């Protein structure tokens, strides 16, 4: 999700390719990116958690997902990990 087009087309293609390659592995892994201009008063933690849950990142049943969230004007970022990824990549 990048309504203000901060990410280049090349970056978006790389994320899609990463997800495509990882979807074929025995231990599937899925990544999402959410970039906005502002959090509009919300905390980065709340936005990251609610978005990750709404998008259901990490393949149903596998729970291997990572969401990278950035708010450009607020200068905030967060990596939200699913339970099964948290031991490998921390929030």
Automatic annotation (TrEMBL):
Organism: Streptococcus pneumoniae
PANTHER family on file: UPF0603 PROTEIN YGCG (PTHR30373)
Signal peptide from the UniProt entry: none
InterPro entries to which the protein is assigned, alphabetical: TPM_dom
Pfam families given in the database record: TPM_phosphatase
Protein name: TPM domain-containing protein
Domain TPM, residue spans: 1-91
């Amino acid at each position: 999700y990048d309504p203000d087009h901060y990410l280049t087309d090349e970056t978006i293609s790389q994320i899609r390719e990463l997800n495509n390659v990882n979807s074929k592995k025995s231990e599937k892994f899925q990544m999402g990116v959410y970039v906005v201009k502002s959090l509009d008063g919300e905390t980065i933690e709340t936005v990251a958690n609610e978005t990750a849950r709404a998008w259901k990142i990490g393949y149903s049943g596998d729970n291997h997902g990572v969401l990278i969230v950035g708010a450009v004007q607020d200068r905030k970022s967060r990596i939200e990990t699913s339970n099964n990824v948290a031991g490998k990549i921390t929030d």
